[in-house]
Amino acid sequence: MDKVLDIVDRLPNAVLIEVPSNQYAHEADVLAEIEEFQSSIGN
Length: 43
Known about the structure:
Blueprint: H1 2-10, H2 22-25, H3 30-40
């Protein structure tokens, strides 16, 4: 996780989005969270 946080710190305007598991990140349900995030940042 430290490497991930380091990447987020180095990228301008990067935001870490945590998901419960790698499997969840590959399921259709995660799309609702991604769309909510995109809406919250104005994209």
